[in-house]
Amino acid sequence: MSVPKNQIAITVEDYLKQASLRVNAALERHLPSETEAPADLHRAVRYSTFAGGKRLRPALAMASFEACHGIGDSVLLAACALEMTHTFSLIHDDLPSMDNDDFRRGRPTNHKVFGEAIAILAGDSLLVYAFELLAKSGRPECIATLARALGTKGMLGGQVVDIQSEGKKVGLETVNYIHNHKTAALIEASLVMGAQLAGADEEVIAGLGAFGNRIGLAFQIVDDVLDLEQTTEALGKDAGSDLAKGKATYPAVVGIAASKDMARQLIDEAKLELRKLPIQGGTLELIADYIITRVH
Amino acid sequence: MSVPKNQIAITVEDYLKQASLRVNAALERHLPSETEAPADLHRAVRYSTFAGGKRLRPALAMASFEACHGIGDSVLLAACALEMTHTFSLIHDDLPSMDNDDFRRGRPTNHKVFGEAIAILAGDSLLVYAFELLAKSGRPECIATLARALGTKGMLGGQVVDIQSEGKKVGLETVNYIHNHKTAALIEASLVMGAQLAGADEEVIAGLGAFGNRIGLAFQIVDDVLDLEQTTEALGKDAGSDLAKGKATYPAVVGIAASKDMARQLIDEAKLELRKLPIQGGTLELIADYIITRVH
């Protein structure tokens, strides 16, 4: 990609790294310290928030905001809220009554360290903080977007069907439902919220949502494939655990080769959606390519 | 209380009953039906939402809104959000890893009927719905009020200390901390949100918050006393269960007589706060009296 004279070329890895540093600094400012009461709860909240996540959702919100010529720091509120709600979902998903996972990102899961009660409350706390932060943006439509993405017809609905499908033989329709709701909805919301905070018009917001939905689904398919192809060390969690648990995944339903084709096709569709829009989508396109080529 | 010619006199019981009917109708409209997918999740959400709660928090928000001459239906959004978050807290508090309660309001608790995973997700869903609804009010300050009341320095913080204090000998300071955070914070928020939605000025909002804090604390003290003095049948849950679990309560720390005195004093203080304000506080005063005289 050629770079206009007034712009600086950076790699997508550098962009993601910089976005991650910015959101980490903002999370650090917005979350209570470990010494504030109740200390155990704040320790648990911080343990999972600062566990080395990729900060993909915050980076997408920022890139969407920038693509729509957003000005100022308001997108950091959305970036933090997205990462907080993502972390909330991981903590609750890992619980004994859900996926019962002992490791996440190479470390013991929240409930293994702090116990189940504190883990549930730490997840609840992150969800509440996300909305408290977003309220500071003064943009109720942005709060509505996040809530819809998380609700019973979004992420939480996907989690229910995921749990209920474990160990059962399910078809592509069910896997699509689970991944669209459990993963793609929040990634789609990341793009939409960035555009809303930039004051983009409805057409651009809808187009970025469509882009987000496709890269979100592709992201989850790649995740399913990596779970089968990568080592436990590279993943930071047990490789092949989806298979062992009888999880509803794309590779389980259509096989690895078809899954990879599907992910590639979704990324192509996403880029087509993006190119229709009157915005500077270069960074978003690079992140879409990164999603399909990443190895962990 | 004398009634001006242009007003209608109703008892506090009738007021609470009417408020309850209004909020129930609004909750019915705002929550997905049991037939919508994922049906199990929506059934679990509705099971605990429509379990015969008193709807005290919604009634307080409405009475606060009316006292501040609020116009329109926006307070119903806050009323529903308050009841949803209250229900969320009850579902999570009852979980095996928390209070491990089998009964609530005379019926099996959510996790006993739907299993632990769905119960956790139903609680999460109600929390998310509350913020989605409040976003419709277009009042970010109202969202911030609710989030602060629920967060780690509000209800969730109180719940952590409550769990950690179980079976331990604690002093009045700890019981104050638990009840102020776990119960009074959300009741205080009910009053504040009603006033915010009515467009009241800062002084009135602060005064109603002070009123709410005191009646909230009194409400919890009365609850602690009722747990000891009432039958299981009247309470709809095991009487004496606080004592059996070694819960940190006012009667356990200062005795029943001193607890009753303290509740009475808090209600008197609350009324003094209320009378300072340039609002029509008649209904709120009656609710304050109801809190201290209720028997279940």
Describe this protein's structure:
The structure is a homodimer of 296-residue chains. With 296 residues, the first copy, chain A, is mostly helical. Chain A has one domain: Farnesyl Diphosphate Synthase (Orthogonal Bundle), CATH 1.10.600. In chain A, 71% of the residues lie in helices and 1% in strands. In chain A, strands 1-2 form a two-stranded antiparallel sheet. In chain A, strand 1 and strand 2 form a beta hairpin. The radius of gyration of chain A is 18 Å and the shape is globular.
Short description:
Chain A is mainly α and 296 residues long. Helices cover 71% and strands 1% of the residues of chain A. Chain A starts with 11 loop residues before the first helix and ends with a helix.
Q: Under CATH, the topology of chain A is which?
A: Farnesyl Diphosphate Synthase
Separation of termini of chain A?
25 Å
The CATH architecture assignment of chain A turns out to be Orthogonal Bundle
Strand order of the largest sheet of chain A: 1-2
User: Which structural class do the helices and strands of chain A define?
Assistant: mainly alpha
- Please trace the helix and strand order of chain A, writing H or E for each element: HHHHEEHHHHHHHHHHH
What is the count of DSSP helices of chain A, taking H or I runs of 4+ residues?
15
Helix-residue proportion of chain A: over 70%
Oligomerization: homodimer
* Unreliable residue runs of chain A: none
Q: Can you identify the CATH superfamily of chain A?
A: Farnesyl Diphosphate Synthase
Q: Major β-sheet of chain A, in short?
A: 2 strands, antiparallel
CA-based gyration radius of chain A: 18 Å
Instruction: Report the count of strand segments of chain A.
Output: 2
Q: Roughly what fraction of the amino acids of chain A lie in strands?
A: under 5%
Mean pLDDT of chain A equals: 94
Q: Most extensive chain contact?
A: A-B, 51 and 51 residues
Tertiary shape of chain A: globular
Number of structural units classed as domains of chain A: 1
